[in-house]
Amino acid sequence: MRKITLLIFLFLTAASGFCQVGNYNQFPGITPNHTLDAKLENISFAYGLRLLESDYDGPFVRLRRASDNAQMDFGCNDVDMVDVDAINTWRAGSNVFVVTWYDQSGLGRHAQQPVLSRQPRFFPDPTNPYIVPENNSQYLDTQTNIQIATNAGANATIVMVLRPVERVQYNFGNFRNNAERWTPHMNWTSGQVFFDPGFCCATNRSFANRAFTDQWSQYTLQRGTTSILIRRNNTTQVSGAFPNRRYTLNQNFFLLAANTGGNPNLTSRSPMAEFIMYNTDIALSIITEIEEDQIAFWDL
């Protein structure tokens, strides 16, 4: 059953549909609780199809309606999730595509795609809404250099919710060549999850994930200075040493594909619902709190 976090603190505006938790707390003596409250230090960006931080009162996504190319922002419903009912009313049966996935970190690093043909599709599933490319040219650009999104092309922590499929694909990040990259495969055609944060290919970088193919799951990927950590659904799959090498190019960090000199490389077909990234290897205690909240909210 979906976790409903203190519904009485949410206010849904008729005009915009955005969450107004920070401005409309009916019970000031009690603080609303969301997964990123008091967890914004060292954050790079936070994208979600639900409310991630109590003070955020903006939209979650800007969508384009294929029938007439009209655009509109959408925020949350009364259970913290993106307002699928409002989206369905507005789209009137038309397919919808993502123009902007808004950053809830407060840094304004919104993931964008102004080119119509390159916009990934949004699926308004009432239980697990998601974003996914439909062809090899669709992706979102975080407008943030990978050297900033990570610690100079090395350390970072990603805590996310997606549904992996088996395909030759990169789910996010950057690619220079077969040796230098900062990106994962979730899943590769072998059913494995591979993570190459800085270069390819270390021995300690993968685990078998075929049993979770096409299932919504929570994943954590972390690169320390000389270590790697990969977790699925709050359980460690890979942990150990990793070579102290970094990704050296200055280019923007992509979502749903790897950035290869400004172009998408091996675009992902794994649907994504949430993506939180820090530019350092944050403490396992913080990771665990975020993981548990993602698992509870999305009923994983």
UniProtKB/TrEMBL annotation:
User: What Gene3D superfamilies does the annotation carry?
Assistant: 2.60.120.200
Name the UniProt key words of this record, in alphabetical order: Signal
Q: Which domain of life is it from?
A: Bacteria
Q: Which residues form the signal peptide?
A: 1-21
Protein name as catalogued: Uncharacterized protein
The scientific name of the source species is Dokdonia sinensis
